[in-house]
Amino acid sequence: MDDNNHNDKSTISEISSPYDKRRSPGIKTQKPLKSPSQAKNKNTTTITTTTTMNVVEESESVPQSESESLSKRQRVEQGKEKLQIFKQGEDDDKAAFAVVTEALRTFYKYYLHFVQEEEKRCAKPEAVKNNKKTSKPKKGETLDVDSKKGARRPDLKALVKMRETNAILCPNKIGSIPGIEVGKQFFSRAEMVAVGFNSHWLNGIDCISHAGSELSRAYNLPIAVVIVMSGQYEDDLDNCDDIVYTGQGGNKLCGNRRQFRDQVLEKGNLGLKNSMDQCVPVRVVRGHECKSSYVGKVYTYDGLYKVVSYWSEKGVSGFNVFKFRLKRLEGQPLLTTDQVQFAGGQVPKSVSDLRGLVCEDISYGQEKVPIPATNLVDDPPVAPTGFTYCNSIQVSEHVELPLKALGCNCSGNCAYSKTCSCAKLNGSNLPYVLRDGGRLIEPKAVVYECGPNCGCGPGCVNRISQRGLKYRLEVYRTPKKGWAVRSWDYIPSGAPVCEYIGKLMKTDDVDAIPENNYIFDIDCLQTMKGLDGRERRLGGMSIPFVENDDDKDSAPEFCLDAGPTGNVARFINHSCQPNLFVQCVLSNHHDLKQARVVLFAADNIPPMKELSYDYAYALDSVVDPDGKIKQLLCYCGAAVCRKRLF
Ligand SMILES: [Zn+2]
Ligand SMILES: [Zn+2]
Ligand SMILES: [Zn+2]
């Protein structure tokens, strides 16, 4: 046990990370910090468009549907692709990564929307009877898409919605897909379709078979570009780098999956033969059982393979099946699928397992789940010091708290958004679904949760962020970024991770404190109004009436100071491509100026991945006491890093 430093109240004060600077809520917002030189002139903010935003726009202009009419740009790109199968430009990859992330976020927004519809239907007594069996998809995704069961699947509905809005990324790609690295994990096959990795969520062999495309001149179509190995066929053989894959057709997709007739050299089978004849690389995906995934499986992209031979033989069931031998191409990252059940990292089983443990629980029992701290960087290893852990907001003596909100008249759970007054405040719909312990459907300008005067109970769907810490978080030391936070548990997108806890202060009082690194301005109102270049994020809501509303005084009036007292949120670092987002939440009262600040998962976050959010500084907005502009380099390592934190 590395216990030497456990109770070490030594003189080593906390080494503050360059990242631990003043933060601001509101994703992608650009805001100035209030400083003496800027307070008089509100229009001095330099608005820098973030790379992320550029990329997002670009994704919208990329032709995305599977429609026959390919745009010029797409033709050109497909032509290029043939040459660039193995060499993707680094810049292209960076942009592509953001495009893929954005497509997944769109997919989950629609997915959660349809989950909510399903939950509403199930909440109605009449519907419960008809719905009993089908509320959850079965393992293995072997349901027929056209059946009524399929129609209830929110992920497939999300795909339809994405298709309608041209949000699906183009699927006709040969070789590696920009933005999707070897080892990338998908939580369903619908996800793979959303990002253009596959063109269909059910086929084991994915082919390009469009006539009329640039590809049809270059290749003899169909060609197979993806195979999914998920134990669907009884005859598959998988030796990782060397696969014998059974062709498609002649087996039952539902039930026992056994062959009941001979396979024919058509469709996917013909595609694989054509890919062999024309040296077209095939992306190989393997499916594994996984409890965290909503379909019960996780799919890992294992890289490019080439088809080296094929033959026909009598299968286990006595019918003719096609066999394709595939070999993995050289020069790719090593295969990890067969060793790793779910995530890339090794998740510790218990706190006592931890290497470099410096504190068993930095919350000293205040959180429902202990938060260990580890340090494998410093010698001797030190624990985080210089602050007192606290899991509820402290209020400065100069701050007057607003009156408690009236609340709704519901009882039990606020399931009926038509009668719940809290639901009305959120734009007539509750912002959360109950699935996976509660998920926010999409980021909003502000979320109105139920509060102390509401008739509903603590289990209400509209109190998701009030339930305290749920995931096993670990605070760990990094070489360049100070302390950081990761989760041992898988976190689904939209799940609340933690609230930013500190002392509620007036910003005027805080400006007098030099070098305070843990201040979070509550700029919910400024974000809603789009002031100072902040991105508006209204989500169909109107701005509530605010007393003494005066645009001239646009700087945030209150902030949270997590310097001397705070919770685990104070250790979460900045990233230019974060996996968390900041959400303003109102529950006790309805004063936006004192909104709660809660961090939610923006993506499905695999275990052991660093948690991060965008501190959202405007460049050149931080000024030292002499009025000089301060700069700080960003080490977030994101593909679209802005290179400077401020
Ligand atoms: Zn409620
Ligand atoms: Zn209610
Ligand atoms: Zn309520």
TrEMBL record:
<keyword id="KW-0808">Transferase</keyword>
<dbReference type="GO" id="GO:0005634">
    <property type="term" value="C:nucleus"/>
</dbReference>
<dbReference type="InterPro" id="IPR036987">
    <property type="entry name" value="SRA-YDG_sf"/>
</dbReference>
<dbReference type="InterPro" id="IPR015947">
    <property type="entry name" value="PUA-like_sf"/>
</dbReference>
<dbReference type="GO" id="GO:0008270">
    <property type="term" value="F:zinc ion binding"/>
</dbReference>
<feature type="compositionally biased region" description="Basic and acidic residues">
    <location>
        <begin position="138"/>
        <end position="148"/>
    </location>
</feature>
<dbReference type="Pfam" id="PF00856">
    <property type="entry name" value="SET"/>
</dbReference>
<keyword id="KW-0158">Chromosome</keyword>
<feature type="domain" description="Post-SET">
    <location>
        <begin position="630"/>
        <end position="646"/>
    </location>
</feature>
<dbReference type="Pfam" id="PF02182">
    <property type="entry name" value="SAD_SRA"/>
</dbReference>
<protein>
    <recommendedName>
        <fullName>Histone-lysine N-methyltransferase</fullName>
    </recommendedName>
</protein>
<feature type="region of interest" description="Disordered">
    <location>
        <begin position="1"/>
        <end position="77"/>
    </location>
</feature>
<dbReference type="InterPro" id="IPR003616">
    <property type="entry name" value="Post-SET_dom"/>
</dbReference>
<dbReference type="InterPro" id="IPR051357">
    <property type="entry name" value="H3K9_HMTase_SUVAR3-9"/>
</dbReference>
<feature type="domain" description="SET">
    <location>
        <begin position="471"/>
        <end position="616"/>
    </location>
</feature>
<dbReference type="GO" id="GO:0042054">
    <property type="term" value="F:histone methyltransferase activity"/>
</dbReference>
<keyword id="KW-0489">Methyltransferase</keyword>
<dbReference type="InterPro" id="IPR007728">
    <property type="entry name" value="Pre-SET_dom"/>
</dbReference>
<feature type="domain" description="Pre-SET">
    <location>
        <begin position="406"/>
        <end position="468"/>
    </location>
</feature>
<dbReference type="InterPro" id="IPR025794">
    <property type="entry name" value="H3-K9-MeTrfase_plant"/>
</dbReference>
<dbReference type="InterPro" id="IPR046341">
    <property type="entry name" value="SET_dom_sf"/>
</dbReference>
<feature type="domain" description="YDG">
    <location>
        <begin position="175"/>
        <end position="328"/>
    </location>
</feature>
<dbReference type="GO" id="GO:0032259">
    <property type="term" value="P:methylation"/>
</dbReference>
<dbReference type="GO" id="GO:0003690">
    <property type="term" value="F:double-stranded DNA binding"/>
</dbReference>
<keyword id="KW-0156">Chromatin regulator</keyword>
<dbReference type="Pfam" id="PF05033">
    <property type="entry name" value="Pre-SET"/>
</dbReference>
<keyword id="KW-0539">Nucleus</keyword>
<feature type="compositionally biased region" description="Low complexity">
    <location>
        <begin position="44"/>
        <end position="68"/>
    </location>
</feature>
<dbReference type="GO" id="GO:0005694">
    <property type="term" value="C:chromosome"/>
</dbReference>
<dbReference type="InterPro" id="IPR001214">
    <property type="entry name" value="SET_dom"/>
</dbReference>
<feature type="compositionally biased region" description="Basic and acidic residues">
    <location>
        <begin position="1"/>
        <end position="11"/>
    </location>
</feature>
<keyword id="KW-0949">S-adenosyl-L-methionine</keyword>
<feature type="region of interest" description="Disordered">
    <location>
        <begin position="122"/>
        <end position="148"/>
    </location>
</feature>
<dbReference type="InterPro" id="IPR003105">
    <property type="entry name" value="SRA_YDG"/>
</dbReference>
